[in-house]
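Good morning N.,

You mentioned wanting to compare the apo and holo forms, so I went ahead and generated the holo version with cobalt (II) ion. This is what I fed in:
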Amino acid sequence: MAYFENINAIKYEGASSKNPFAFKYYNPEEVINGKTMEEILRFGVAYWHTFDADGSDPFGVGTAIRPWDHLTGLDRAKARVEAAFEFFEKLNVPFFCFHDVDIAPEGSTLRESNQNQDIIVAMIKEYMATSKTKLLWNTANMFTNPRYVHGAATSNNADVFAYSAAKVKKALEVGKELGAENYVFWGGREGYETLLNTNMKLEQDNLARFFHMAVDYAKEIGFDAQFLIEPKPKEPTKHQYDFDVATGLSFLQKYDLADKFKFNIEANHATLAGHTFEHELHVARINNMLGSVDANQGDPLLGWDTDEFPTDLYSTTLAMYEILKNGGLGRGGLNFDSKVRRGSFDVEDLFHAHIVGMDGFAVGLKVANKLLEDRVFEDFIDDRYSSYNEGIGLEIVEGKADLRKLEAYALELTEIKNQSGRTERLKAILNQYLLETITK
Ligand code: XUL
Ligand code: CO
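and this is what came out, ligand included:
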């Protein structure tokens, strides 16, 4: 059965196309610097937003009625798998991502939940055998069910810690079964509401114990996925432990986990932390910790995680700049952790949303590649720091200077001259490259 029967395969038609169901900039086969766009961008569809979400928000029920919504339980889960692979094929995406509860309903016991998963995982595996779409990552949802009210691995309740460990064990087995490239931990409720009832030290020690157990078990069963932490500063908890990349990195280093993990960076989480998307990518990159990306965007007028499809070309360009400078995403990808607006309730909107997101990153890729080819910002930055290439600067970076030596040098300085940072000029160049690429 076809769930999206009015929609044909989405093809690249170029920037002049008026076809709403065509890519204008994303040409999967176009080669950029020796690799195809498809290979560089590694797009993924988020199962939860695309096949499970109904547009409900804290103020109202869902607005979207999907073609599988007349079914319930395992029947609906199976219909979703059928719809998902039709969607992946029509959109021609290489990857998808899911939480355990996205693909199969929870049973009344852990055993029953695992059995439900086994049924759906077997079905997904069968579909994957003839599909090009692979699993970018999977994860365990340890935030929706009321048992996680006080956290999962950071719960005050050891039974919840144990239950969460069992969920991750199963999720790792599922990841191995389906050949996942990565395994994600987003600490949905791993944080606190008030210090008045919180033993932060124990909670963080336990979180580290939990991660070590996961790493050990993956090794034991031969699941060689890249482990990823997805930082987010708040929501649903007031303060989440994996606040941002810098905080996450210091946690990983403290607990001897830094060589086992990288980061899955989400744009809207970056902005919630008071950073730009590119800041988080940059911090991860310079520390060799950039693993994968949850592509979306927030709304500057709203202070929460709106998970909008990415349409801001500055943001996609600066993100792709970091990704290219990183030498690509390796085993990671660009997963659309993005949802259609509540008012966009038709299945067609699911296609429009992914098309605009994929086109947005394709533009970003082209602009970033040109900027790097021309070494626009790189040469400027090299020049800006050239005082460290010779003289006293070279002595500083080579570790040959101490305070006494620097004082002697400074006492002889008659004048200190600084150069303009040229922020506005550089932004003008960025505009020029963007417009030239789009209109070419
Ligand atoms: C929540 C979020 C999650 C993670 C996976 O803000 O981003 O969907 O990506 O658990
Ligand atoms: Co995410």
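Residues 347-373 form the longest helix (27 residues).

Happy to go through it together on a call whenever suits you.

Best,
F.
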